[in-house]
Amino acid sequence: MSVGAQAAIAVKGLKKAFGSVDVIRGIDISFPRHEKHLIIGPNGAGKTTFFNLLNGQYAPSAGRIEFLDVDVTHMPIRQRALLGLGRTFQIASLFQDLSVRDNLRIAAGAPQAAQRSDLRAEENMEIALSFCGLKAKADGAVRHLSYGEQRRLEIAMGLATAPQVLLLDEPMAGLTQIERGIVAERILEVSTATSILLIEHDLEVALKLADKLTVLHLGEVIAHGPVESVMDDPFVRQIYLG
Amino acid sequence: MMTLQLVNGIAYGNLLFLIAAGFTLIFGILRVINMAHGSFFLLGAHVAISVATATQSVLAGLIAGSLAAALLGALMERVLLYRIQGNYLAQVIVTIGVLMIVGDLCQVYWGGTPRIFALPEHLRASVPLGALRYPLDRLILVIIGPAIALALWFVIERTAFGAKVRAAVDDEEIAQAIGISVPRLRVFVFALGSLLAGLAGALGSTFIGAKPGVDLDIILLALVIVVIGGPGSLVGSYVAALIIGLIDSIGKSLWPEASMFLLFAPMLIVLIVAPHGLFGKPSGPAGAVRQFKPITISCPNWLWSLVNAGRQSAMRLSWPIAAIVALVAAIAVPFFGSGFSVTVVGLMLIWSIFAIGLNIMLGYGGMPSLGHALFFGAGAYAMAWSGFAGLNAYVGLLAAVASACFAALFLAAVALRARDAQLLLVTLAVAQVVWGVVFKWRSITGGDDGLIHPQAFPQISSDLSTNFYLHVIGAFAIAMAAYAWFARSNFRLLLTGVRSNEPRLLALGFNVDAIRLKAIVLSSIFSGFAGGLYAVYSGFVAPELFGVHTSAKVLLMTIIGMAGTFFGPIIGAVSIIGLEEVFSGWSERSNTLLGALYIIVALFGFGGIKFARRQVTARRRIPVAKAVLP
Amino acid sequence: MNMKRKAGIVLAAILAGIGIVSPLAAQEPIKIGVLQAMTGPLALVGMESTDGFVHYFEQIGNKVAGRPVVLYKEDDAANPSQGLERTRRLVERERVHVLSGISTSAIAYALRTYVDQRQVPLVIMGAAGANDLTDKQASPYIFRTSFSNRQLGAPIGQYACQKLGLKKIVVMASDFVTGHEQSAAFRDQYSKAGCNVVRSVMVPLGTSDFTPFLSQIASLDADGVWAMFFAADAIAFVKQYESLGLKAKVPLIGPSGLIDPALLGAMGAAAAGIVAPIYYTTLLENPENKAFVQSFKVRYGREPGGTAASGYIAAMAIARAIEAIDGRIEDKPAFLAALRQVKLKTPIGIFEFDAKQNVVLDFYLGKVGPGESGYTLQVVEPLEKAVDQYGIAR
C-alpha cells in the first residue's frame, strides 16, 4: 500500500481455466494509478472473469497479480478489500432487506474506509447518498427501488468505502439513456485519488470517461493504451468495431 | 464372547444402515432434514407386528410395514413439504410436528405397551455362537443389509432412473425442461427413504420392538450416523453404521456406563476434524426458497383487515410506548390474576428472553440453530451449581451467562463455517453431544434424574410467587434494554448484512467470521440468562433442558413471531406458552395438537398457506381442495 | 373514539372476569390430582396405577363423606420438568386438595420441595421407590403406598443364597436411582447371608439390545442372575435372556418389577420359571382381593397387577382418611393425622404406614407359571411378613 506505487494493478502471465476450458489465456498488463481505464471486448472475452480474478473471487490457474505493488495473487477477498480494492457487481449486490441509508452506512463503515478517509463514516455516508441522488428515498427498503436506482446505489456503495482502486463491472447495463448520462457524469466526478477500472458495452458513453482503453478478446489483451490510438488499431477495428 | 459381540455389532450395524440410508437419501437428494424419520420406523414396526400376528406370515408383516411407512412418507412430502420446498427450516419444523403427531396417534391406536414380535415356532431358530446362541432373525441382518446397500447403489449410480434423480437435484428447471417430472421424483425419493425406515422397524420388531419413545431414539441414532458418515453419502452411511454398531456392541460389554457417551463422542470428533463427515462433500449452494402452489384460503374482508392491521402495527410499534404498556401489564398481573397466572406469565417472560437470543442468531443473522437448548441448559446448570456453591443468585445469573458464553465458543469452534441445512444439523449434533454427556455424568450432573438445587432469589417480598415474579420482571427489563441497544447498534446492521448478502460484506472488507462469532456469543448470553432464570423457577435441572424438544420449541416461538422482527420472539413465546396451557386443559392429546400447531405455523410462516383477500368484484372463489391438488 | 370505547369495555370485562372469585358453595367437591405417565415409555405402568386408583372411587360412587370427588389427571411423561409444571398447574390452578401418582423417583424428588413448601399432601402410588423420599428427605406431607426400593430388593436376598442355593450371582440393573437402590438392597442381604455377588452390571435405561451385556454372563461362572428392569426394558431383557440360550443354563430371579403381570403377556413363555418376591398377585387368597380382581376384570377387561393394586389401595387410604375426619379435607393437620393412622383390609392384606409414612408390605415368593390365559404369578410360599421400608421384617 505504498503511496508511491506506480501501478494501481499489475498482472503478469495471468491464466484461468475452468476444467478444460481456458477463459483467460495469459494476460500481462499494468494499469497506472489516478486514471480511468476502460476495458472492452466481445461477449465471452473474459472480462468479468478478469475482474473476479482481480478481486479474489476466483483463484488464478497461473500468473501473478499485484495491487499497489503488493502481491495479492493468493490473498482472500477480504484482505484485498482491506488494502483498498473496491468492486461493484454486474448484478446489483445490495442488502435487500435494509434501507438505502443503511446500505451506505455499512459500506461507509467498512474497515477499509476508516483507514483512508479523514471524514467520519456518517459523513461519508451522506456524501455517497448525495452522489447517487437517492436522498429522497434514503429510508425506504432497497427492494422498492427501480433497477436504475439500484445500479446507482451499487456504484455509490463501491465509492463509499473510499477505495484506492475501484472495479466497476458494467455499471450502465440496463439503464435508460438519461440514466446513463447521469451515471457517466458521476463517474467523471470521482476524484483521481481513486483509480478506476471499468467494464462497459456502451462505447459512446464510456469512451468519454476513459483515459486508457484495453481490449480483451478470447482471454487475451489485444490492445492497450490511450483511447485514440487503440481505436485506430486496425485489428481492434476488425474484431470489435468492424 | 468376542465373536458374539462382533457378530451382534455387525448385525446391529446393518440395521442402523437401513435407518441411516433412508435419512441420508432424503437429505442428500432432497435437502430435507426429516425429523420424523423415526416415526416411520415406529409405524413400520407397529404395522408389521399387527399384520404378521394377524396373518401368521412374517413376510406379509415386513411388506406391510415397509409399505405403510412409504405411504406416510409420500403423503407427507406431497401434502406438506412440497409447499415449502427449498426451505430447510420450515421443513424441519413441519417434520417435528409430524413426529409429535404420529408418536401420539400410534400410542392412541396401539397403546403404550411395548410390542415385541414373537416369531412363530418354526422360525425361532438360533445359531450356536461361543457358549451361547444367537437368534437367526438378527443374524439375517448381516445378509439383508449389504444386499439393500448394493441395490441402492446400483439404482442411484447405474440406472437411467438414478441419473434422472441426480439431474433433478442438480438443476430442477432444466430437468423439468427435458421432461423429468420433479414432483414425482421427489415423492419417489421420499417414499423410498421412508420405506427403508419402515423396513428397519419391521426387521427390528423382534428385539427393539414398537414402543413410545423409540421414534426419538431412532432419529438421534440416524443423526449420529449421518453426521459421521457424511450427509448424502450412502457409502458413508454404511461405514459409519457399522462403526457405530460395533462401538455400541463392544463398548457396552466392556464399559456399560459410558454407552451414551461412546455414541456421541465419535460424532463430536468427526464434526471437529472433518465437518462434512468421513465421506461427505461440502453441500452445494442452498436452494432458492421457492413457493410452490400455496394453499389459498380466501377470507372475508374484515378478517383480512384485522390480520393486516395486526401485522402492520406489530411492525410499526413504537417501542417505548409498547414497552411501557407491557411493563405495566406485567406488573399488574399478580394483583389481578390468580397465583397460577403469575407463574404462567413468569414462564412467558423467561421463554421470551430465550427466544430473543435465538432471534439474534436466526432472525437477524440468518443462522438457523436447532440446538439452542445448549445455551439454555448451560445457563440453567450453572445456576444450579452456583446454588450448591452457596453463591448469591445474582452471581448465579452471571455464572449462567458465562457458562453459556463458554458453550457458544465451543459451538462456534465447530459450526462457524457451516451454513443453512448443514448448520441446523451441526447445532443439533453439538447440543445432543452435550445432552449425552450431561445425561451420563451422574456424579456431576445428577444424570437423567436431574438435580434439585437450593438456589433462590433473595427475599424482597414475603410471598414466594411474588418474590420470584418481581425478579423475573426485573430480569426481563434488563434483557429488553440490552436487546434494544443491540437493535439500534451498528452491529445489528452488519449482522443483517451477513444474512442478506455475505459476499458483499466480504468484498467490503468485513471480517464475516468475526461477526458471526459475536452473534453466536451475544445470542448465547440471552439464552443462558433465560436458562439461569428457569433454573430458579423450577428449582430443578435435568438433561432435557439440553434436548431436542426444548430447541424445537424455542425455534417455533421465534418463527411464529416472525423471525427477524424486534417483538417477534416475545409474541412467539407468549403465544406458545399460552397455547400450551389452553391445549393441556382441553385434552390428553396435547402432543397431537402441538404437532399440528408446528405444522401450521411452519406452513403459514413460509408462504405455504396464504390468506387471500376475497375480491370484492370477482365471483370466482377457488375452493381449498382445488388449490391443494396440483 | 369508537375503538377506544370498545376497547375500554372489553378491558373492563376481562378484568372483571379475572377479578371475580365468588365464594363457592359448601358442597365444593374434593379435588384429587393424579399425576402419572400417560405418554412415553412408562405410559404402561402409569396407566395401570391410575386405573386402580380410579376404580376404587368409581366403586364408591365418586363420593366420600357426602362430598363429590373429582379427579384431575395430568401427564408427566416420566419427565421431571413436565411433572413439576403439571403439578404447579394442579396445585395453583385447579387447587387440588391431595396429589397422587408419580411414576418415577426423579419426578418425586423434583416435587418434594414444592409439595413440602406448599403443604400439599402427596400420596405416592407409582413406581417412585427412591429410599430417601420417606427417609432422609421425608416430609410430613409425603406418603407412599407403593414401595420403597429397599423393600423390593431385600426380601429375596437371604432366600436366594440359602434356599435356592445360588451361591454366585451376577447382579444386573437399570442404571438409574431405582436400579441402584434395589440392587444395593439385594446385595446387602445376599452378602449377609454368606453368598457372593460375582459381578454388578449397570445397563442404561431404555436399552433395546441386551446382547453385549448378556454375553458376559456365560464366561463368568455364575449360577444365577438377579436382574432389575422395568417396563419395556424388562420385556426385552427377559425375551433376549431366553433367545440367547441363557435361560436354560442360568436361573433368573429379580424383584417384582421384572415380572409385573402387565408385562407377562408380552414376555410369553420366556418368563416361565422366574421367581421374585412379590407383594401382590391375583391369586392371593383374601376376600378383598377376590372382589377386587373380579371387579377390575369386568371394568377393564384384564387382570390387575401390583401397580394397579397400589393405586387401588392409595385411593382406599385417602378415602378412609377423609371419612375419618367427616370430609373436612381442608383441615390439613387433621387429614394428615388421619392418613397416618389408617389401617385397612385391602387386596394385599392388612395395610398400614410405618413411622415415616411408607407402606408396610407382606412378601411371598412368586413364580411365573402357566395360567388360564397365558402366564400368571403363582405363589410358592410366604417369604417375609410386615417388611418395612428398610427391608426389615418387623
Q: Which architecture of the largest domain in chain C does the CATH hierarchy give at level 2?
A: 3-Layer(aba) Sandwich
Shape of chain B: globular
The fraction of residues in strands of chain B falls at under 5%
Mean pLDDT of chain C: 86
CATH architecture of the largest domain in chain B: Orthogonal Bundle
Largest sheet entry of chain C:
6 strands, mixed
pLDDT < 50 runs, ≥5 residues of chain C: 15-26
Summarize the SSE layout with pairings.
The complex is a heterotrimer of chains A (242), B (630) and C (394).
Chain A: E1 7-18, E2 21-32, E3 36-40, H1 47-55, E4 62-67, E5 70-71, H2 77-83, E6 85-87, H3 100-108, H4 111-116, H5 121-132, H6 147-160, E7 165-169, H7 177-189, E8 195-199, H8 203-209, E9 212-217, E10 220-226, H9 227-232, H10 234-241
Parallel strand pairs in A: 3-8, 3-9, 6-7, 7-8
Antiparallel strand pairs in A: 1-2, 1-4, 4-5, 9-10
Chain B: H1 2-30, H2 37-55, H3 58-80, H4 88-110, E1 126-129, E2 132-135, H5 136-139, H6 141-158, H7 160-170, H8 172-177, H9 182-203, H10 214-229, H11 234-254, H12 259-273, E3 295-299, H13 301-316, H14 319-336, H15 339-364, H16 373-388, H17 393-415, H18 420-440, H19 442-445, E4 451-452, H20 464-487, H21 490-507, H22 512-538, E5 540-541, H23 548-560, H24 568-586, H25 590-605, E6 609-613, H26 624-628
Chain C: H1 2-19, E1 30-36, H2 43-59, E2 63-64, E3 67-75, H3 80-93, E4 98-101, H4 105-118, E5 122-124, E6 142-144, H5 149-153, H6 156-162, E7 168-174, H7 177-192, E8 196-203, H8 211-218, E9 224-228, H9 231-243, E10 252-253, H10 261-267, E11 275-278, H11 287-300, H12 306-324, H13 332-340, E12 343-346, E13 349-352, E14 361-370, E15 375-387
Parallel strand pairs in C: 1-3, 1-4, 4-5, 5-6, 7-8, 7-9, 9-10
Antiparallel strand pairs in C: 2-3, 11-14, 12-13, 14-15
Helix pairs in contact in C: 2-12, 3-4, 6-7, 9-10, 12-13
Structural account:
The complex is a heterotrimer of chains A (242), B (630) and C (394). Chain A is an alpha/beta fold. In chain A, 38% of the residues lie in helices and 26% in strands. Chain A has ten helices and ten strands. In chain A, helix 3 crosses helix 5, helix 3 (100-108) runs parallel beside helix 6 (147-160) and helix 7 packs parallel to helix 8. Chain A is globular, with a radius of gyration of 18 Å. Chain A starts with 6 loop residues before the first strand and ends with a helix. The relative contact order of chain A is 0.18. The mean pLDDT of chain A is 84. With 630 residues, chain B is mainly alpha-helical. The radius of gyration of chain B is 25 Å and the shape is globular. Chain B has two domains: 2-115 and 137-273, ABC transporter involved in vitamin B12 uptake, BtuC (Orthogonal Bundle); 342-548, no CATH class. In chain B, strand 1 (126-129) and strand 2 form a beta hairpin. The relative contact order of chain B is 0.13. Helix content of chain B is 72%, strand content 3%. The model of chain B is unreliable at 284-293 and 615-630 (pLDDT under 50). Chain B has a two-stranded antiparallel sheet with strand order 1-2. In chain B, strands 3-6 form a two-stranded parallel ribbon. Chain B has a two-stranded antiparallel sheet with strand order 4-5. Helices cover 41% and strands 22% of the residues of chain C. Chain C has a six-stranded mixed sheet with strand order 2-3-1-4-5-6, sandwiched between helices. Chain C has 394 residues and is of the alpha/beta class. Chain C folds into two domains: 30-147 and 285-359, Response regulator (Rossmann fold); 151-278 and 363-387, Rossmann fold (3-Layer(aba) Sandwich), CATH 3.40.50.2300. In chain C, strand 2 and strand 3 (67-75) form a beta hairpin. The interface between B and C is large, with 66 and 65 residues.
